[in-house]
Structures are given as C-alpha cells and as structure tokens.
Here is the input.
Amino acid sequence: MWISTIKAVTKRLCSSGLPSDVTIEVGDMSFHLHKFPLLSKSGFLEKLIEQLPNEDESGCVLKLHDIPGGAKAFELVAKFCYDVKIELTSLNIVSLRCAAEYLQMTEEHGEGNLISQTEVFLNEVFGNWTDTIKALETCEEVGSYAEEVHIVSRCIDSLAIKACADPQLFNWPVKGQENVRSPNGTVLWNGISSTTKPQPTGEDWWYEDVSFLRFPLYKLLILSVEAKGLKSENIAASLIHYAKKNIPLINNQSSFNDMNHVASGITASTNSEVDQRLLLEELVGLLPSAKGVTTTNFLLRLLRTAMILHASPSCRESLEKKIGSQLDQALLVDLLIPNMGYTVETLYDIDCIQRILDHFMSIYHAPIASSPCIIEEGQMVSGTDTLTPMTMVANLVDGYLAEVAPDVNLKLPKFQALAAAIPDYARPLDDGIYHAIDVYLKAHPWLSDSEREQLCRLMNCQKLSLEASTHAAQNERLPLRVIVQVLFFEQLRLRTSISGWFFVSENLENSQHPNGNLGLPKNDCTKAMEEGRADEGGGGKDVKERVSELERECLGMKMELEKLVKTKKSWSLIPKKLGFGRKSQPCIPKPDDIMEQTTSVSAPQNNENGDLGQRVVA
Here is the structure.
C-alpha cells in the first residue's frame, strides 16, 4: 500500500514533465523529487544538497531516516513544498510540526512556511480538550522531538488548566460532547440546543480520557494539576481510576457488586506483571499524603496487589503507613489479607496488620491512667467521645483477632502482641477481646494452664458486660482463677451499685427534710423507704408493697425513739432490768443497737413499787 501511495505522490509531484534530480530515502520508502522546491522551503535540505558532488546531479540521493514521523510525515512535507494542499488534524500536527523543525522550514526560507502554519494550528488544538488529548498521544511517535519544541509541555498545561477549572463555567468541549443530538435524533448546530439543557458535568469528567495516556505523560499531567492547586480528592480519584484501568489485579480483588461496576466502565489492561508492578510503584508515589483523601479500602487493595506482584519493600512500607494513619476507617473484611510469603505459617498476614497497627498507635496513642475503681455497666460507654478513632480501631482489632483465632498455626505470642497493642482505656467493653480469647482457646485446646492464664490477662474482667460475665462464669475453657475473678467483680459491682443507690436516697431525704431527722443516723430501712419514694413511679407492684411495709416499720421506730428521748430519766432503769452495765453508771444504748433490736418488744411488767414500768425495747 505504501509503495503505491509513494508512486502516486511522485507522479503528481513530477507531473510537470521535468525529470527528478534528487531522491529522498526515508526508511524503506524513496521519493523522487526536484531540488528547487525543497531548497526554497527547507534550510536543512539546502545544506545537504550543497554538500553533494556536482558530477552526477541526476543521481544524487539523500537519506533522511531520522526525520520525525517517518515517511508519512515527509510525504506531507513534500506536498507542502510543491504547494499541494494538505489537511492538518490533531493526529498529524505533532509529527508535521516536528518534521518542519527538523528540516528547518522557518520564515527565513519563505513567508508562511510550515513551522509558522503548524504553530497556528497547534494553538487551535490546545483550545479543545479532545484534540489536545489526541495530539498528546501522538507525541510518543516522535520521541524527544516533541519535547524539544515544547509540544508536550504545552499539551499538559492546556489539559491541566481545563481539568482544574469548571467545565460548565467555560463551556469547554469534553469527550462525548462533539455531536450533541436533540431528542429527535438530529445533530444540533455547534452543539447548542435552545430547547434542552446539557447534562451537568461532574468533577470526574476528565478521569476516563486521561486514563488512556501512557504513564509518563499521565504522570506529567498529575504533577501539573497538583501544582495548579487541584483538590487532593480529585487527584486521588483520578489515580484510582487510572490504576483500575491499567492494573487488572486490583479489580480482581473487588466484591461481586464492585466487579460488576468495574466491568461496566473499565476495560482490563493487557500489561504484563512486570509492567503492572512498576506502574503500581509509580502510582503509590503519586498518591496524596493527606489523611483520608484516598480511601482505606483502596489502599488495602493496593497493598494486597503489591504483595501479589512482589513490589519493592519501600512501596509496601509506604502503603502500610498510609493505611495506619487512617486505620479507623478500615473494614474488617479488608484487613483479612492472605499470607503470600514463601514460608506460609498462618492463613492471614498477621505481621502486616501488626505493622499497620503499630503505625496507628504511634500517631494516636496518648498515655491515660486507668482508674482502679470498679466500673459499672452503665458507665462503660461514657467518656469515649475523644477516643473515637482509638475505640474504633480497638473494635476492629478485636474482630480481626476473632477471625484469625481459629487458625491452628497462629502462635500465642503473635496473638498476644496484636491484642496487647491496644491500650486498656480504648476498650469501653472487653466483650470483643473476650470473644477472641474464647475462640482461640477453643481452637488451641493443648495450651497449658499457665498459657491460658497468660492469655486471659489480655482482658479486664471488670469491663465485661452482664451477658459476657454470665458466659464467662460458665466457660469451662477459662482458668478457674479467671472464673472466680469474674464472679468476684460481678458481686463487687452489685454492692457498689446498691451503695450508690442508698447514698442518693439519703441525700434526697436530707434535702427535703433538713430538720426532721432528730439528729439520728439513718438506718438501711429508712434509706430503702426514701429510695422507694423516689422510684415509686418507675417500680413494679412488689417494690411498692415492700417500700410501704418498710415505711410503716420505720415510722413506728421513730415514734419509739421520740418517747425515749422525752423520758431520759427512765434510761437508768434499762441496765437494771436487762442486766448489763454497772449500777453506778447508767448505760445508754446506741441508736444502732436499738435499731438492731426492733424485732421484739417486751410486755409491760410491774416494778418493785407495783407501778407499771416503761415499755422497754428488749
């Protein structure tokens, strides 16, 4: 096909009947032309022809194997020298501009020469997004020549300006909008409709177009938009789109729903594993450093792909640090990275998660002294607002430990190291770590008693919920010491709750009756009565009846005490009748002793003088 084309071109150019006096060889093609049209347009060809010997002018041959664009570009140059009309497009303008520069077709060799005309058309190309993309893609055909005439930098700058700006504001044409059709199917003039409004364009309108660029050009574009102030979120989104387009292994790790979404808009690349590894390492270096810009899910997928492709240690370390800085945003299913080492010991890569967790703790861990007091269940979830990231990671690690615990190859030191990395204050409840420990004990029944006790030290028995405490008290896999400890703290928590209940009721009664307590200490019955009053609206029927009974008993006790206070002189008779204390020193019983002896009351008795004695509380 090329031979027939060259023959046709030569025939047209030499249609004047003059014999050809110069032959231009470009690759495998030969052009039989005339010297004068070439000399008048090209300074480079003029120098070459002048250097030729004058003996045999009809047989002079020039070899231009290094001309940018090859024979196809030189054909257009030859037409231009013969004043044949040529068509400039975004696909041939780059090679033609570089060829004109190579042949030195400047204004010194003719007004309106090829360099100036191609420059004019290039400026028009730079005003259109799609044409600029096409021109940039053809820069690879001419290699470094496009960079020497600054075509690559100008294309990148034009694309970056448009990517950073609002396309709706400037109405720049983007891919897919060249032929806008009306609802009736007719093409609208200049892409403008007076009846229908164009669909709004989002910030991701340029991601798909630039994903077809080779990575060196794409990297230049990303660096340019970053320098121009494009938001880090948009840069990260573009990098994610480019990675999914050109690294198929990333897409293979998606869930079923994500795979359908990816397959609908992204075509897998045919790059080899070596190319994918090099591309992944380069993309990781371009990811924004700001926290949360790149999703943790995608970072973990990148890390998993890096392990499959055996990426460099620095690449994996960079990904682990990025994941660690935002580990609180991760999901449990994303952390289950299979172990891909040569010496596989465990099913999942525990060491990788340990490194990620250590990096998270180096950022967020702050020493907080834990209180030794007993923690009530209602207080276990309070005061954790400032510890939200740490608490989320604690729950995440506890869930991860429960998932990897059934692995019989998981050694106890690794399990302990991962669990102990979380500080005690980060867990409002220890139910999660208790569940992980229980699963591990079930999967490793051969552990010794000392190892079981050492493992159970990872949890705080005071911070188990009622449900977890009930389960632990009946768990035969736990050491006996731990079971006793669980029961002890449950009883202690119950006593603490009751004491607080009575303390609140006493303060409530004192505030309501500051002068009505006769200066006597309140006993448990009085406290229960007052608490019953406070909780009368929310208690059940049994509670109300018990409170009424206590109220009646305490009222009778108060009446007896008032009588005893009024008749202080009669206290001296009590030790004589009861037989305690010395006669010379009357013993006045303490109020607490009186309260303890309210169960029985003696009948009236006659004294030595025949009078009815005082009713004595026996």
